[in-house]
Automatic annotation (TrEMBL):
Listed GO biological process terms: folic acid biosynthetic process; tetrahydrofolate biosynthetic process
Domain of life from the UniProt record: Eukaryota
Group of enzyme by EC: transferase
GO molecular function list: 2-amino-4-hydroxy-6-hydroxymethyldihydropteridine diphosphokinase activity; ATP binding; kinase activity
Record's keyword annotation contains Coiled coil: no
Stated name of the protein: 2-amino-4-hydroxy-6-hydroxymethyldihydropteridine diphosphokinase
Pathway per the UniProt entry: Cofactor biosynthesis; tetrahydrofolate biosynthesis; 2-amino-4-hydroxy-6-hydroxymethyl-7,8-dihydropteridine diphosphate from 7,8-dihydroneopterin triphosphate: step 4/4
Gene3D superfamilies documented for this protein: 7,8-Dihydro-6-hydroxymethylpterin-pyrophosphokinase HPPK (3.30.70.560)
A Pfam short name: HPPK
Residues annotated as domain 7,8-dihydro-6-hydroxymethylpterin-pyrophosphokinase: 23-146
Keyword Nucleotide-binding attached: yes
Length: 157
């Protein structure tokens, strides 16, 4: 079997300190869903570079089904934020859009103005972006348990 020669990927190295690439799901099912997702995308652009966006798609809610359908999208974001710092930023963006957080039991799986989830994460290595080792903390799980939404991310690596 012939082996391919190593490829020089130094041209792919981020020009700035942006060392992480994330696949982030956006969803909204309360209020002006499209306006909310558009505004959230603008907020994400302030903390990194949005490399790719999916098409918008609508889904029925899971678990608590007596609520409006969600309007969703997935984006690939490159940033210098490590995972927990990015989660803090995402929670701030959700709060800025009127989100009541999951910590309040009555809102778990309930309607939300905005939901931002980190589906997948990669870190820059000498040979390009590589998936982070799985991460599980009380606040954050990567890859996200519902990472089936990450199809837009699979072609980004």
């Amino acid at each position: 079997m012939t082996r391919l020669a190593p490829v020089n990927v130094s041209w792919m190295r981020p020009a700035t300190a942006e060392l992480y690439r994330y696949c982030i799901a956006l969803g909204a099912n309360v209020g002006s869903r499209l306006q909310t997702l558009t505004s959230a995308l603008s907020s994400l652009q302030k903390i990194g570079s949005v490399e790719r966006t999916s098409r918008l798609y609508e889904t029925e809610p899971l678990y608590r089904t007596a609520q409006p359908a969600f309007l969703n999208a997935v984006v690939v974001l490159r940033t210098d934020r490590e995972p927990t710092a990015l989660l803090t930023e995402l929670e701030r963006i959700e709060k800025d859009h009127g989100r009541i957080h999951k910590g309040q039991l009555d809102q778990q799986y309930g309607p939300r103005t905005l939901d931002l989830d980190i589906l997948l994460a990669e870190r820059w290595q000498a040979d390009g972006f590589r998936a982070l080792s799985p991460l599980q903390t009380p606040r954050l799980t990567i890859p996200h348990p519902a990472n089936g939404r990450a199809s837009v991310c699979s072609s980004s690596t």
